[in-house]
Design goal:
It is found in: Membrane. By secondary structure, the protein is of the alpha+beta class. Helices cover 33% and strands 25% of the residues. The protein is built from 15 helices and 23 strands. Helix 3 runs antiparallel to helix 4 and helix 7 packs parallel to helix 9.
């Protein structure tokens, strides 16, 4: 599979075009040589056995060197010896089975019929494939078999397809094909991923892996049909923190360094001729790879992708640096995700702001329809946090306003959001906060304008809170200026008096400087200034999680330092807040001050002005009149942005 038609080219260019890929593959195989695969199934995940077999088998097929075949046999023998694939969670029926079926099926075809374990391996693949296939059929409508937007679906069905192609089991390959025909038509065309960057890096390569298998084995080219894959690199690129090494961590993210896949970047570059993907693959391979390999909390990690890096590399795609071609602002409507940055370099400032229903609009709409029609449960958005209306802010190589990362008991209060009478979203404080939620419980991102490194957007999130709070309005408008400053306007209303609390989380303890709050991290600092009457305090927020059911003992913890700014109990509240990033080594003073307007509200910074309309869409004041949602001016850059309207 995958290499028959190009075997001569690969072999002849191992010291030419594919020299870097071959070096990576050889180093990875050498790493396996120094390991001892367990003879008894460990309590933790065994997903790594799949790519181990594939890497060693490919090295043997390309070179004919016997030591790679012998080493492959050592690892494959151990995998064959396990009575079940997977131990702590759904043995034979979930990720371990999917990973091993895929990798060992490739190895089976690459090692050949004369491989000493060929018969035993074939029998094991037949057994495990049957177990996974039967589970997929029996569980349709409940777990991963019909969770079309979830990585478990993609991994398990790709493993089943690989085994089906290797063994000639058309029933397996046809079921996988029917599944992926649905998946690629239902995934959002804008390429955004509700599971977040870390699970994008873990799960999306399997979509590409399946399409690669399908094209190789059946001659079907579904690459253009899959608009999600065609556009998903743009999503991933815009979720790079400035400097590209770290990632914005919306959703379940183990850490901020588990977001890159050189192999997937190569494949997307090749399939869709994306020069920026080729460029980022090179940057990661040369500058970031080894730090991610050892610092990442996601297993089996990036190192075992060596065989895919070699097979998916296409040297005909010219690399294009994002700084030369990619907009500084972006909007992904399905996830309600707005991003803006002052630049792509590691000293730039960036914001990422999001609001959408659970799973994103496409998944929310479609899952409710399918579940109603068929009595199924398809959404499985457990990695999507209760974070509609929240944002992440980074500057000068450090994170200033942060997300909590991975959590099992997900709460709005662990995000940069608003609490109402101390409460977050309805039905939260559990793993899957959107499970069983009524269709009407939807957040919306409206009035979006993202261009030239500026952004304006309003998150409407009142529907996300418990009905008993009787919230009639909770709208958050966020503005990102050309200089990287933030203006936040929270407009709140309820039928009964409520306590409205603005939350802002940071990695390091907060400091107070007069009426200002100071966030510091590394070389970055931000002045947080409230322009509404609030009581301000600081608390510590602790989050603990187990990121994988296959390893129950694993624990991730994060400590956040939280600003709480609470307005006096009332039926309405208007909270106006500014955040001004600067250098922590040579800080510039905060300059944000509120402008008195007859209609609307405004903030004046040094060299920049942000004016926001009243509820009727008017901005009126001394020297300004506009029928618009907002007016953003920058004296420094000469830019002026009018959101949905015009100046009088």
């Amino acid at each position: 599979m995958l290499i028959d038609h190009r075997l001569d080219d690969l072999r002849s260019e191992l010291d030419g075009r594919y020299a870097a890929g071959w070096r990576r593959l050889a180093e990875q195989c050498d790493w396996y040589r120094g390991q001892t695969p367990p003879t008894e199934h460990p309590s933790a995940s065994i997903t790594y056995f799949g790519p181990a077999a594939a890497n060693l088998a490919l090295a043997y097929r390309l070179t004919g060197h016997e030591h790679y075949r012998v080493e492959a046999a050592r690892w494959i023998s151990a995998a064959i010896g396990f009575p079940h694939w997977g131990k702590a969670h759904l043995p034979d029926h979930d990720l371990d089975a999917g990973w091993l079926l895929h990798g060992l099926s490739l190895a089976y075809t690459w090692l050949g019929d004369d491989f000493e374990l060929a018969d035993e391996l074939r029998a094991k693949l037949e057994l495990q494939g049957t177990r996974l296939y039967e589970f997929a059929v029996e569980s349709e409508g409940s777990w991963w078999s019909s969770s079309y937007w979830q990585n478990h679906n993609w991994i398990c069905y790709t493993g089943l397809a690989a085994a089906g192609y290797a063994l000639g089991r058309k029933d397996w390959t046809e079921r996988a094909k029917a599944n992926f025909a649905t998946v690629i038509d239902l995934l959002p065309a804008d390429g955004s991923d509700m599971e977040g960057v870390v699970y994008w890096r873990y799960g999306v390569p399997w979509l590409a892996t399946y399409l690669d298998l399908l094209q190789d084995q059946e001659g079907l080219d579904w690459w253009d049909r899959c608009r999600f894959l065609a556009n998903t690199f743009s999503y991933r690129l815009q979720q790079c923190a400035p400097g590209f090494e770290e990632n914005i961590d919306h959703g379940d993210c183990h850490d901020r360094r588990s977001g890159h896949s050189v192999a997937l970047y190569y494949k997307l570059a090749s399939a869709y001729r994306i020069g920026e993907a080729q460029w980022l693959a090179g940057q990661v391979a040369e500058r970031f790879f080894w730090r991610e390999a050892y610092a990442s909390g996601v297993k089996p990690g990036v190192m075992p992708e060596a065989y895919l890096e070699l097979l998916w590399y296409d040297d005909t795609v010219p690399a294009v640096a994002p700084a030369e071609s990619t907009p500084l602002s972006a909007y992904f409507p399905d996830l309600g995700l707005v991003t803006a940055r002052t630049g792509w370099d590691d000293q730039a400032t960036m914001v990422s702001f999001k609001a959408a229903p659970g799973g994103g609009h496409q998944a929310w709409e479609t899952s409710h329809r399918l579940d109603t029609e068929r009595g199924w449960e398809t959404l499985s958005a457990g990695h999507h946090h209760p974070d509609a209306g929240s944002f992440v802010l980074t500057s000068r190589g450090a994170f200033l306003a942060v997300d909590e990362g991975y959590s099992n008991r997900k709460r709005a209060g662990d995000h940069n959001l608003i609490l109402v009478d101390g409460q977050g979203f309805a039905d939260e404080d559990r793993y899957h906060v959107y499970k069983g939620a009524p269709y009407e419980r939807q957040a919306q991102m409206v009035d979006v304008l993202a261009e030239d490194g500026m952004a304006h957007a309003t998150a409407r999130i009142a529907a996300m809170y418990p009905a008993e709070l009787e919230i009639e309005r909770l709208d958050r408008t966020l503005v990102f200026t050309p200089a990287g400053r933030l203006v936040l306007l929270d407009q709140c209303a309820a039928r009964s008096p409520r306590e409205w609390t603005f939350l802002l989380h940071a990695d390091w303890p907060l400091e107070f400087d007069g009426d200002d709050v100071v966030l510091r991290s590394g070389s970055a600092q931000a002045w947080v200034r409230t322009h509404s009457p609030v009581d301000v305090s600081s608390v510590v927020t602790e989050v603990e999680a187990n990121p994988t059911s296959s390893t129950p003992s694993l624990r991730l913890t994060r400590t956040m330092h939280t600003l709480r700014a609470t307005a006096e109990r009332n039926t309405t509240a208007t909270l106006l807040t500014t955040i001004e990033p600067t250098s922590s080594l040579r800080p510039e003073k905060a300059s944000g001050r509120r402008i008195e307007l007859t209609r609307g509200c405004g903030i004046a910074f040094e060299g920049e002005t942000v004016l926001l309309a009243d509820d009727d869409g008017y901005i009126e004041g001394e020297g300004v009149s506009a029928r618009a949602k907002a007016v953003i001016r920058s004296d420094t850059s000469g830019l002026s942005l009018v959101v949905e309207g015009e100046l009088s």
